[in-house]
Design a protein that fits this description.
The chain has 402 residues and is an alpha/beta fold. The chain is built from 15 helices and 14 strands. Helix 6 links the parallel strand 5 and strand 6. It is globular and about 60 Å long. Its cofactor is pyridoxal 5'-phosphate.
Length: 402
């Protein structure tokens, strides 16, 4: 048997990393990161070297990350409480603000308890993996286009699962019907899907959950803040609050960072007590939580932000349509502009950046299937009609050159 020295083993390992990265580059799938500095004094702009760029792909749907009241809330709290909480939630990391935020989130969604996490990804992964593992014979029914955080949380448990056709009520019912009524079940889906901008048949799925005695875990990430009378998501918009669990995030429409799950007290108390990613990680700083509380207040009280978001989105879609630019006209604030081809979408993005001062991130495989590459465009409330017209004209020119 040949014994390989440590240096040789390291060379083999690093060589494999390089080979795989080279494959990404050859196939046009290597991810490049634009190192910009967002400008609170000129919202929707980022400083890129000595240039200012317009950002047209931000998840900051309402522009609250640069809202003066949210900024002030974080600054004032930082002066009072410092920059960190000094430990995990169970070791000196729980502040009065953490408790208040969880209580307000639970009340917002009409649930018994809410639990906040360091991100939406962690909220999904830790909650699902912990709860499903607690009941080993649980069968999971997962939408085919669910986010990776949901997929990983389910897969981590090794449970029996069915991946049903996207938004297909009949396919879900066919899968559910295979099991006795007493079999533990949970249906996992999103309300707004970010890549196509389409919306789930929420009430129809909840009807099936009642009929087949299943729990439901509903990811409202892209609906929180932008759907419903107070921004409570699609559930609030439809007045249908039957979902067992609601998941949401702060890093999109609320403008800060973190995620949460709201639902029954016993289930989330179990997650609080057993989820490693909750127990063994540093708590969100109180200053950030206070900023989130302010962002949540603005989302709940200021429906004009949602009106402006909807108005700008409609205007953008009409401008794209008039310019003959292909996009998915879904029922949401997300505007997927189709630019098929991994190399082509990268060329168009670079052209927009270099020649027009516009930043949009190419979306390609594995986020979307090959041949359906796109830009996922968002139109925050602060966008002017002149800026939208400029964006569409620039995009049209770049597509023609590509």
């Amino acid at each position: 048997m040949t014994i390989i020295g440590s240096e040789a083993r390291e060379a083999v390992l690093l060589g494999e990393f390089r080979r795989r990265l080279d494959d990404l580059k050859v196939n046009g799938l290597y991810r490049e990161f634009i190192a910009g500095a967002h400008r609170a004094d000129d919202r929707g702009q980022t400083q890129y070297g000595d240039r200012r760029l317009q950002v047209w792909c931000s998840n900051d749907y309402l522009g609250l990350s640069q809202h003066p009241e949210v900024i002030l809330a974080q600054i004032e709290s930082t002066f009072r409480h410092g920059t960190g909480n000094g430990g995990s939630r169970n070791i000196a990391g729980t502040s009065a603000s953490h408790v208040e935020l969880e209580e307000r989130l639970a009340a917002w969604h009409g649930k018994e308890r809410a639990l906040i996490f360091s991100s939406g990804y962690v909220a999904n992964f830790e909650s699902l993996s912990t709860m499903i593992s607690a009941v080993p014979d649980t069968v999971v029914f997962s939408d085919a286009l669910n986010h990776r955080s949901l997929i990983e949380g389910i897969s981590r448990t090794g449970c029996r699962k069915h991946v049903f056709r996207h938004n297909d009520v009949d396919a879900l019912e066919s899968d559910l019907a295979q099991y006795p009524i007493e079999q533990p079940k949970i249906i996992v889906f999103e309300t707004v899907y970010s890549m196509d901008g389409d919306v789930a048949p929420l009430s129809a799925f909840l009807d099936l959950a009642e009929r087949y005695n299943a729990l439901t875990f509903v990811d409202e990430t892209h609906a929180i803040g932008v759907r419903g009378p107070t921004g409570g998501g699609l559930s609030e918009e439809l007045g249908d609050h039957r979902a067992t669990f609601i998941q949401g995030v702060f890093g999109k429409a609320i403008g800060t960072v973190g995620g949460y799950v709201a639902g029954p007290d016993s289930a989330l108390d179990y997650v609080r007590s057993f989820a490693p990613g909750f127990i063994f990680t540093t708590a969100l700083p109180q200053a950030g939580v206070d900023a989130t509380l302010k962002g949540l207040e603005l989302v709940q009280r200021d429906g004009e932000l949602r009106v402006a978001l909807d108005s700008g989105t409609r205007y953008t879609k009409n401008a794209l349509r008039a310019a003959g630019i292909e996009f998915i006209d879904a029922d949401s604030h997300l505007v997927p502009v189709m630019v098929p081809g991994a190399e082509r979408v990268r060329r168009v993005a670079r052209h927009l950046l270099d020649d027009f001062g516009i930043y949009v991130q190419p979306i390609n495989f594995p986020s979307v299937p090959r041949g359906t590459e796109r830009f996922r465009v968002t139109v925050a409330p602060y966008r002017t009609r002149e800026q939208i017209d400029y964006f569409v004209q620039a995009l049209s020119a770049c597509l023609a050159d590509a």
